[in-house]
Model the fold of this input.
Amino acid sequence: MSLDPIQTLRSQTIAMPQENIDTDQIIPARYLTTTTREGLGKVLFYDWRYDVDGTVKAEAVLNNVDPEGHAILVGGHNFGCGSSREHAPWALADYGFKAVLSTKIADIFKSNAIKNGILAIEVSPEAHAWLMDNPGAEIEIDLEEKKVRLPNQMVENFEIEAFGRRCLLDGVDPLGFLQNSAEEIEAYEARTGKHAA
Done:
C-alpha cells in the first residue's frame, strides 16, 4: 500500500489526557465489521464524541478542531492498550492523524500504527507534561533525525525500529517495501539458486 511519506511533520496537536486509552475506546468493537479504512474517522472515539442517539457532544475535543491542521494526537500514559485491532490506527489515519505521542504506547498498537503510516512516539514525562499544558501547540517531528521539537526549545530524541522508519520515510507499508524490492529479490535468488516457494 502506498502511504504519504513522512520526513518532517509540522502540525498543531490535539491533547487527550486520559490514561490507558485502549483500542476499544479508539474504535468500539461494533465498528469492526468493515474491511476497508474509508469512513472510520467518523467513528473514531465514537462513544466520547456522540451520545447514544448519535447527537454530537459539543464538549468533545475532536468535534471542535479542524483535522487538517491537527495531525498530531497527544494521548495520556499507556496509549493503545487492549486488543490488537488494526482498525484503531485505520480510524486514526482516516480522521487525519499522522502521529501519536505519549509517555507509553502499547507495543502491538505501535507496530500496527507504523504499518499504517502513523508515527507512534514515546516522549519523556517532561515533554508530555508541556504538551498537555499547551494543547494546540505547533510542533515538529523530524523522522530523519528522530527528534521532536517543541516551541519552548525542548528537543526530544525518540526511538523507532529501523524497518518501520524506512517504510515511513519511503511512504510504503511492509508489502509495498517488498514489492519495491522485487528486482533485488529476484537478483538474489538468481545468484544463490534459491527461489521463493
Strands lie at 8-16, 72-75, 99-102, 119-122, 138-142, 147-149, 155-157. The CA atoms of residues 82 and 128 lie 22 Å apart.
